[in-house]
Amino acid sequence: MKITRLFLIIFLAITNMIPGSAQSIRDSVVVTMETEEGNLRIVLFTKEAPVTCDNFLKYIELLGDQGGEFYRTVTMANQPDKKVKIEVIQGGFNLKNVDTSTIKPIPLERTSITKLSHKDGTMSMARSDPDSGSTEFFICIGDQPSLDFGGQRNPDGQGFAAFGRVISGMDVVRKIQVRQAEGQALTPPVRIVQIQVE
Length: 198
Known about the structure:
Blueprint: H1 2-14, H2 23-26, E1 29-35, E2 38-44, H3 50-63, E3 68-74, E4 88-93, H4 111-114, E5 122-125, E6 136-140, E7 161-168, H5 170-177, E8 181-182, E9 185-197
Antiparallel strand pairs: 1-2, 1-9, 2-7, 3-4, 3-9, 4-6, 5-6, 5-7, 8-9
């Protein structure tokens, strides 16, 4: 009986079912995004937003060494036609050598389900319609509750899929946001040199 009980305890520890075990290691992944303005360290919430994180990690594996770019900055001054204003920078993976017909959108992981929210430094999946996100993302500057489920920035009210947070490098994000732009288009875009899992 004692041997059986010992075996069960060991088994539960290995499978991370005991509170206080290594579950937290599996619940998040940290990636480094190297840009020409400096580096960002971003934690991905793989437990809360598994579909979005798996998608992002897939593209890191396929395209991380090819980098990408931040091409859009949204400030309080460059969205005069919007009643609900936000502050973000938006970018995406380098798709130059990719057959874009093979890119498949993923389901929208609504913040009402994930319980994540668009706070300062949150990384989220860019989209047009719900369930259309794939290779583009944005980072919030300041809290942006209008991007959560039920928020009014997007008329459909479905919000955006928050899936990570900048844990180091928000000074770099702010530098990118104030770079030269024509309207919301960064001129030139800020190059992402590479993205790697730590």
